[in-house]
Amino acid sequence: MKIYLANPRGFCAGVDRAIHIVEATMAKYGTPVFVRNEIVHNKAVVESLKERGAIFVKDVDEVPDNKVVIFSAHGAAVSAYEKAKAKHLTILDASCPLVKKVHNNIQKYSAEGAKIILIGHAGHPEVEGHLGQIKDKIHLITKPEDVAKLPFSADEKLAYLTQTTLSRMESENIISELKKRYPKILGPKKGDLCYATTNRQMAVEEFAGKIDLLLVVGSANSSNSNRLKELGELLGIRSYLIDTPKNIDVSWFIGVENIGITSGASAPEYLVQKLINEISDKFPIEDVVELKTMEESVRFPLPEGLDKK
């Protein structure tokens, strides 16, 4: 067998920043520190931070007054920040800057009198944060068929924004339907999709015609990891999403000659290397080939006052 590695893969700048914020906060303030929601959607990362003194909570109400709270990379509703201030919490914001950009645009379009349409998946923490940016109702749509159900006329002032971790095809199809029905609709010039989400999808597209099996390292609640698995399936490749190398099933490899491996934007690289070792222990591997599609150089600074360790 031969293994092909997608490049780029793994941590994006927003995830790297969020994890370092938790580490730097623990170094500065001591433990425990409280984190609202999983800092990023990866079980291994969350468990590692728990062992070092991070306590993950679903709501700010669970944090004792006057303690330190970190908001996860997915962002949060305005009301969550207000609640934290009312409890006199020290707030560290690990929201991805690209998520914050969507928040700012929601507020901007709303202030200009536009009604907001959000493209995303209901229940995802990022989407919940977007929906909580303004008091007016934001209309959430998930698929092209939802556009026909929107209650707006063609002459109303409308604006659309998207969850940052959707697939390119998914968002493009919905935006196309929106523009057909509402030709004057406003939207971000460069789009809202995270650069890393797009780059990792393009790297998987390079696997087309080269592999028989795709393994995506990522947790089940990771939106961008799920999109990579779905993309593999769209390309006609048998694809699996795995949290850890121990999740692999030897039956997947029957008749397989070429294996593709990638990882979601919140999956650490050491899990990819463990997966390669796990496969190599079970099967004869002829070669490991890295397919590099582009170079990523994006970096996001930590909040003022936190030193990167």
Keywords:
single chain, 5-stranded parallel β-sheet, 3 domains, 35% helix, 18% strand, Cobalt-precorrin-4 Transmethylase, domain 1, 4-stranded parallel β-sheet, 9 helices
What does this structure look like?
- There is one protein chain.
- The protein is of the alpha/beta class.
- Helices cover 35% and strands 18% of the residues.
- It has helices spanning 13-29, 43-51, 78-86, 97-111, 125-131, 168-181, 195-205, 223-234, 269-282; strands at 2-7, 33-36, 54-57, 68-71, 90-93, 115-119, 139-141, 158-162, 213-217, 238-242, 258-263, 287-292.
- The strands form three sheets. A five-stranded parallel beta sheet has the order 10-9-11-1-12. The protein has a four-stranded parallel beta sheet with strand order 3-2-4-5, with helices on both faces.
- Helix 7 (195-205) runs parallel beside helix 8 (223-234).
- The longest helix is centred in the first third of the chain and has 17 residues, at 13-29.
- The mean pLDDT is 96.
CATH superfamily of the largest domain: 4-hydroxy-3-methylbut-2-enyl diphosphate reductase, catalytic domain
Q: How are the strands ordered across the major sheet?
A: 10-9-11-1-12
SSE series: EHEHEEHEHEHEEHHEHEEHE
Number of strand segments: 12
Find the CATH topology of the largest domain. Answer: Cobalt-precorrin-4 Transmethylase, domain 1
CATH class of the largest domain: Alpha Beta
Mean pLDDT across all residues, rounded? Answer: 96
Share of residues in strands: 15-25%
Cα radius of gyration in angstroms: 21 Å
The total domain count is 3
Largest sheet: 5 strands, parallel
What is the straight-line distance between the termini? 39 Å
Instruction: Give the structural class.
Output: alpha/beta
Q: Give the low-pLDDT segments.
A: none
Second-tier CATH architecture of the largest domain: 3-Layer(aba) Sandwich
